[in-house]
Amino acid sequence: MRHTQSCDHSRRSFLHGAGVTLAGVGLSSLLPSPLIQHVMAGTDANGKRLLFIFQRGACDALNTVIPHGDSDYSSTNRPTLYITPAQALNLNDFASLHPALTDIKSAYDAGDLAVIHRVGYPSQSRSHFDSQRIWENGTGVASVFEGWLYRYVAENAVAAGDLPVVTAQATPPLLLRGKERFVNVANPDDFDYVHQPPKRDKYEAAWRRRFGSFIGLEQYRPVLSQTGVKLIDTLGEYRTWDQANWNPKDPNSGHSLFPVSDATNPVDPAGPNGKKFATTSYPFFKSVKLCALSLLESDAVNNNSTRIAGTELNGWDTHDNQGTLTGEHPELLTWLGYAMKSLRVVLSGAAVDPRNYGSIWNDTVVVTMTEFGRTTVENGSLGTDHAEGCVVFAMGGSVNGGVYNCDASAWPHGVMLEVGGRYLSHRTDYRSIFWELLRDHMGANPSTLEKVFPGYTALGLAAGELGLT
Amino acid sequence: MYSTVSSRAAVAVLASFVGASLALAQTPAEVTGLRISEAENLTWNSTINAQDYNIYRGLLDQLIAGTPPRCHANEIAVTQFVSPDDPPVGSAYVYLVTAEGATGLEGTPGTSSAASTRALLGRCDPVERTQLLNRVTYGFSEYAKSRYDALGWNAFIDEQLAPASIDESSNTDLTTRRAPLIPPENTNELVGLAIVNGTYARRQLEQVVTIFWVNHFNTNYNDIRGYFNRPDFTDAVTNQLTAETQYRETEQFRSLAFTGTFREIVEASAKSPAMILYLDNDENVVGKPNENYARELLELHTMGVDNGYTQLDIEELARALTGWNVCKKTDANKGDPLAACISRVLEGTTAGTYVSNFRIAQHDHGQKILFQGTPHQVTLPSTQSNQSAGVNDLQSALDAIAGHPSTRQFIAQKLLQWFVQELPSASQVAAVEAVWLAQAGDLREVLRAVLLRPELRNPDAFRQKVRTPLEQVLAAFRATRGKTNGFTTVRAYLQRMQQLPHQNPVPTGYSELGADWIDTNNTLERQNFGMDVTALTGTNFGTDLTGLMSANGLTTASTPESIVDFWSDVLFGGALTPADRQEAIDYLKTNDSGVLDPVLTNARLREVVGFMLGYPIYQEQ
Predict the structure, then answer these.
(1) Is A215–B65 a contact, with Cβ atoms under 8 angstroms apart?
(2) A53 - beta bridge partners?
(3) Cβ neighbours of B67 in A, within 8 Å
(4) Contact B594/B614 with Cβ under 8 angstroms?
(5) Which pLDDT tens digit goes with each residue over B502-534?
(6) Secondary structure (3-state) at B204
(7) What is the ipTM score, two decimals?
(8) Which residues pair with B5 in a beta bridge?
(9) E strands, B418-553, where?
């Protein structure tokens, strides 16, 4: 269901389109919404999938989706970091993509990519750690150590399988922190016991037998036991995925979609060591690959039923030598762009791949997050410091593609220095994006949403942000 | 011996009856929230040969489910005890008391109605010893156990607080394995040093606290290395110089942790080339401030996030810290931040050290005001007319910050979290703050106040924290006569467990909250580490389990029960439930296919220890 809407509608224009009253929140899931094409709530929601990528360190929004329509984006404010309109990829004659994101332009042109600018929350924290926690706990305060996505999964029992959630990162995100643990794979190639059967079977059976009941007065005993059983439950399925030998390729270029090794890294004479990507990108691509595979393996035949997968990409804290067209920030953008393009190819069944997975593109939304944006004015170290409004990408076959919050109506001159004379102000609360995603894509009902984002619906904030008023 | 079960079970029956007897039109719902609201006052008969008594307490429902009472209070000198809190709603406490003689011999808990000795979740003394060794050291070792048994709780802490008094010259395990790593020539050797010190040092607290400060003032090898990565340096030189900057700050922290004040240690970090490079203070210059270090100095190193400072303070502090960078100076000049640097082209051929350096022309000489409008406001006067005095802005700023009450609150809280409990109470924090004030921030005395908190010794705090990966592998080495050169295999495990010292990319340091370390990956790697290290007997990565067992009279001819009980004592202070114990016994009694095979082998003896190292309880401390 490729979707062809004009690419210039803002949140505001969408607000008008929806035309639902606040009193109608209970019915609103039956109506189209700005970001996501509507799903009948509660029907066929089981097949819906979500894949997130957290850009940790705070990505510079203004050099990612560039507001060329605002004269505050200038070589005066950014003497070395300024990118000209001619260097960038025009989106809507106001906003442009950083040229390092050229790989996601085709998704945008096809209407599969929503670019949401000026995302944040009230009383923004400019501490990485507090702000990440707020993005992940869904409450607006930093002191809560439970993830909003955990609450969604716990409320919905997303699927009956063993693997409703797979994350592939160093340690699991707070986003999925709660009373129980899901599967996190930090080292996909080493994710198995050192012993082989029958010794391994003896070990697994003894461990499961002994720690299958999650009791204990010690505060962590139940979750330690549950995590170990979850691990044993998972490994049997995980082995069948044989992720190490999965190497889907791009039908046009013939390149591996997931460059996880020198052998799969496309040749590029201009790149590091004659390859397209630095070797330091391999762990990220390995993680994205595992996320994609877990969602593709999630079918009725297997009992894993993975509906939510996610990973992270570190290194966006560019206080110095950020890089303009090349360098740290642009390099990370090329990784992100290539990963997103690869996800679109492989999840839509278009990859060259003997396994011939079918398309799940209309059932999947890929979404990015980052804790805040960076200062409008470049600092003295060819970099940028912590600020507020940031950019979120949402991509999928059911996404209403386009630019949100970055056109003349949603971006009056002055917003780039609106907060404290230094920071881009936010226009959309991050919760409203995920609120909408859970409701209209995953099919969450109002009572679930209220538990996922406590108070958010009740305050009318979600309704307001979504344009339902 | 005297044991008692509280009368709550009887009361529960009574209350249920009352609920059911209200025969109104509708049948009432089940009675809930039933409990006794008064603390239980226990008394028992004075017992012959008893010097004091140990109180054990369990929950009735857990007792039925197989978890026996555990140590609740140790060494009560009278025949009376008031249990301080109420049981959870809907449950009841079960109490059991044993007598302890003058030599520490503990009397029997008696026999149950089934005529077997009543089970306890570990005896008070070994459980308490396990708690201290887990928190103050990297866990049980034969040496640490012997010192604890000789000294007791307080004197053991005192000895560890005086590391210079502990002889390491005769500790050949340490000295021979450490020698090739000093000074470290690359990051692997620096990491190896943390592993070798942590495993073998008798000055355990010194090592634990050093890692605390390394973690608190986190720097990352991979970020610093860029500075030393020059066309005219070989990779080996780049690696060596990078490791050396982190090694030097580590050793400064090691020394100041026992001889210095917080004010001194924060200055050591601020002037450490590793920190200057890691948080970009070398990029922070007049007219072009870089806020990175100023923000983290307040948020992470001193006051705590949003705890008494504002964005304006970050900006003012960043200005005060302008002008500092790193350069190579001759040894004659290295202590003087204003002295000349060796010119860049001569660095490769001129002897000297990379140190902090102050550039007068890059400093913002305007007036700065910190904590404006608060009782703690401090003005750093303009140095326009006396520009070399700009070097003192760093001192003045650190004086203001280190002296701010938020700082002693934040650091006290963090130390308590590391050693005592994850969420220390406000009164605990206040007690440590009081010592800080009285002792002018003396780090050793502050640490003593933390370690002597009664909460550390309260059985309710035992096993309520989770070992970090580093703590897990070091404890496993120490308990098993482990062998490590600091590199082989263990580094790869720590990397996969996501905790290589000196290489954390984020300035927070590694988390001290258990929830951050529990996931399928860490569980898998911890279990694999246990199985791997116990299966091997090599000198670079392995264990000498059979040696340790035979020294304690255990061989393949011993009973499986005696072998498991020995390891239960070593690893858990004996605090295994009967079912956990039995599972290990069954594991030991069966072959690889799980079939009963009573002929024990050394390989199976080793393997059962690996199995026990994978227990959930072993991730706790």
Answers:
(1) yes
(2) A311, A368
(3) 215-217
(4) no
(5) 999 899 999 999 999 999 999 999 999 999 999
(6) helix
(7) 0.92
(8) B94
(9) 483-484, 541-542
